[in-house]
Amino acid sequence: MNNTVEMNSNLIEENDTNEKKLKKKSKYKSKLSKIKEQRQLYLLLLPAFILTIVFKYIPMYGILIGFKDYNPLYGITGSEWVGFKHFMKFLTSPNFIDIFMNTLKLSIFSLIISFPIPIIIAIMLNMVRSKTNKKNIQLILYAPNFISVVVVVGMLFILFSPTGPINQLVTIFTGKPIMFMSDPRYFRTIYILSGIWQGAGWSSIIYVAALANVSPELVDAAMIDGANIFQRIRHIDIPTLKPLMVISFILAAGGIMSIGFEKAYLMQTSMNIPASEIIATYVYKQGLQAGDYGYSTAIGLFNTVINVILLLTVNKIVKYINEGEGL
Fold first, then answer.
1. For residue range 219-256, what is the model confidence (pLDDT) as tens digits?
2. Which of 11, 97, 121, 213 can pair with 204 through a Cys bridge, CB separation 3.0 to 4.6 Å?
């Protein structure tokens, strides 16, 4: 009896393993068949995949520099391993609090102030019924995005110079010019407002495209029911844009510490450094100007880790608030 029971149990186990193997083979075959059916799409995806691997994943090997006393003569593998020495040096440096808070303030203020502007622009453009007027307005709003950051900063220095047009108006009312570009108090305001002028119109494209898919019949039905413009925005436009708004906000919050280096560095003067020195400019100065590659790599890695933590945290919070919808 015992032998027959053991034999039956062994047969059952063999059948289970065979069934699992068959299921795995069938899944594998179905995946292969799907890949064969969609091979043209995979071929289109292949160049982007290769570029991502080459320029995003392979350079990750370089983060080892942050844990070594890097010497270009010895290379990454030959340089001395120092562990978290560079990280501790940055965290205990007297400039850490100022640089970290400058980066955080500039990023958070930029996010809070500039995030709703493209949404408002898209809703306003959606209300314009004349196609000709709509295209002309879009052309004016999108054009600043194609101006180089160097040119934009040059324009700012001309506009806000002591003899520039802005200060000429200020002088009429106050009797003396204001040093906008050298005073730390005005750096963040000028940085954020000029960024909105340059990028808000271009950022609104995705929202304009989403609103273009709203059924005209739905809008007409709302108007027949007596809904005013604000009610239509609240009950039609905002629900349509909500998924895009959630994804855009999560991604923007996840990159909150990765504020642009070029503009901050170009706007930086010896007088406004207390407000303009951020992590990106500090990394540039320590790495390329001072030649301390290990220290600058450690700072950049620290910045990336903070971004990843913020991305995961904001995504969880949004999922909790937004009924499970997030990235």
1. 888 888 888 888 888 888 888 888 888 888 888 877 77
2. 121
The three-state secondary structure class of 180 is coil
DSSP codes joined into one string, 44-92: HHHHHHHHHIIIIIGGGGGGGGGGEE--TTTHHHHSEE-TTHHHHHHHT
**Which residues on neighbouring strands pair with residue 69, listed in sequence order?**
80
| Close Cβ partners of 48 (under 8 Å, ≥ 6 residues apart) | none
The predicted model scores a pTM of 0.80
Q: Which pLDDT score is estimated for 5?
A: 46
**Rounded distance between C-alpha atoms, residue 133 and residue 211, angstroms:** 17
- Report the C-alpha gap between 280 and 255 in whole angstroms: 13
Residue that is written with structure tokens 């910045």 in the block? 303
d(Cα 268, Cα 106) in Å, to the nearest integer?
Answer: 14
Residue numbers of the chain with a pLDDT score lower than 50: 2, 5
Query: And the tokens for 318?
Result: 């949004």
Cα separations (Å) of 286 from 63, 243, 258, 281?
Answer: 16, 41, 17, 9
